[in-house]
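pls read this stuff:
=====
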Amino acid sequence: MTPITPGEGTLATTARPLTTWRYPRRVRPLRADHLQVPLPRRYSPKHRGFAEGMARHEAAMASGMLSYRDPVTGFTVFTARFLADRGYCCDSGCRHCPYEPAR
């Protein structure tokens, strides 16, 4: 087996297909404030644990992490930077989706 050198096989270096059978790409523009503000209908100040969740999101993005743990549920949540770098919207309702909502 050939050893993997650093950087190989990571998200940043792996070639991504233009479409997949399950998630065809839906090219939408990035929101202007996508790194700082989540879509209100998905995550707003009314949600329990919002302030702590946003603090964890900011800390994860500052340290280059792809995700963080939700303080209320313990679920893994992708950061806006990871979702923007992925290059497409999967329409799964991600909390920090950086793309303009579908019309």
About this structure: The beta strands are 67-69, 76-78. Residues 1-18 have pLDDT under 50 and may be disordered. The chain is about 20% helix and 5% strand. The radius of gyration is 15 Å.
